[in-house]
Write a structure and sequence with these properties.
Layout (H helix, E strand, L loop, with lengths): L26 H36 L3 H21 L12 H5 L8 H11 L3 H4 L2 H6 L7 H10 L7 H29 L22 H28 L24 H20 L6 H19 L12 H29 L12
Helix pairs in contact: 1-2, 1-8, 1-10, 2-7, 2-10, 7-8, 9-10, 9-12, 10-11, 11-12
């Protein structure tokens, strides 16, 4: 699968320009605060952990061992969760060159990760395809965390045999690619050459991306809302055998959960929710004058996080059991309730309309 423009049903919200009659007080201040205290530190964490993953992979592949694989899996977990921490951002450098899909291709409803990975491993000329310039322009399915997880959890790698050498070569290319993307993202946000951060302070003219502070706030709120949709309609609904409204219900399937091989499905959701809570506290709460709305948002977040933290990390592997399914359905109801607060109250309080996106309609 070659790089191509994402379709409407991707996680990307439809680009739009909005002109607002009422500007919330100090929008510029809070937008920049979000970038400096939340987004940029998260991209730094992602870059550091991606570099560590590349280093641990190189060490393992030089001398494969069970202990070495433990270190690789630990580094993968950290990189994966650092990605989940910033996964909700759907504007800026992450949206160029399909970086979001190249870091993680999920959901993978047609099994393209496995198909493309097996095809690459079976290719006698595979090394030519692993050259950094060619690899980055090749199949998105084999470039990121989903393919790396499949290699370290789906294949036996310890031992010095030809097939393991081939798998290690692919692992190293994936890890290097994730590192290159992550480093590039951070550089585009804060580097010396035209950093994206500067555009979060819109000047009267000359801003290449935004026409107003409120437009930036709109990108943040829509990213916030869309991530709640992703958690509800994909991360929780897909393994339950459900999807959008109107779609045929199927049997519960633990293999449809995000990161099911590494059993990080629930940890991913917890990281997502914690990041969204931080975004609310830093970027939106100071601009909400209605105390009852802030109280409702805090109660919804704390209730959801409390439930997640009390849930067994392996619950998705037991999704075929009625008790596990009911528990996840209750969790989804809490996500839906929080999403309703955002669409029905927070959006209006901030005077920021929510844009249509391909996940709407569940």
């Amino acid at each position: 699968m070659k790089l191509k423009k994402p379709s409407l049903v991707s996680l990307i919200t439809v680009p739009f320009l909005l002109f607002f009659s009422a500007q919330p007080l100090h929008a510029e201040k809070w937008n920049l605060k979000v970038a400096d205290e939340l987004l940029i530190p998260a991209y730094k964490d992602l870059s550091r952990s991606a570099t560590e993953l590349s280093a641990k992979t190189l060490r393992f592949c030089g001398a494969p061992s069970d202990d070495g694989m433990i270190h690789v899996k630990t580094a993968y977990k950290q990189a994966f969760l650092n990605w989940e921490k910033i996964q909700y951002i759907r504007f800026g450098p992450i949206q160029t060159l399909m970086r979001d899909f190249r870091i993680q291709m999920w959901p993978d409803k047609k099994g393209k990760v496995g198909k493309h990975l097996n095809k690459l491993l079976a290719d006698d000329d595979y090394k030519a395809k692993l050259a950094p310039d060619k690899f980055a322009l090749g199949s998105v399915a084999v470039q990121g965390l989903s393919a790396f997880e499949r290699l370290i959890y789906g294949y036996k790698l310890a031992g010095d045999v030809p097939q393991n050498k081939r798998q290690c070569d692919v692992m190293q290319s994936i890890a290097n690619n994730i590192e290159a993307i992550s480093t590039g993202l951070l550089d585009e946000w804060v580097g010396e050459d035209d950093p994206y951060r500067q555009y979060l302070i819109p000047p009267p003219e000359g801003n290449l991306y935004f026409e107003s502070d409120q437009e930036i706030s709109s990108k943040l709120l829509n990213s916030f809302y869309t991530e709640l949709l992703v958690i509800g309609t994909q991360k929780l609904s897909l393994p339950l055998g459900e999807g959008k409204a109107g779609q045929k219900k199927t049997k519960p399937n633990p293999k449809r959960a995000e990161a099911w091989r590494s059993q990080l499905s629930l940890a991913a959701i917890q990281t997502n929710v914690e990041s969204l809570f931080s975004l609310y506290k830093i970027g939106f709460e100071p601009r909400v004058k209605e105390d009852s709305l802030n109280e409702a948002m805090y109660q919804a977040f704390e209730s959801l996080l409390g439930m997640i933290k009390q849930t067994d990390q392996s619950i998705f592997s037991k999704v075929k059991d009625a008790s596990a399914s009911e528990h996840l359905l209750e969790m989804r109801m809490k996500v839906t309730g929080l999403r309703g607060l955002v669409s029905n109250r927070l959006s209006k309080a901030l005077n920021i309309p929510l844009a249509f996106n391909g996940l709407d309609g569940d």
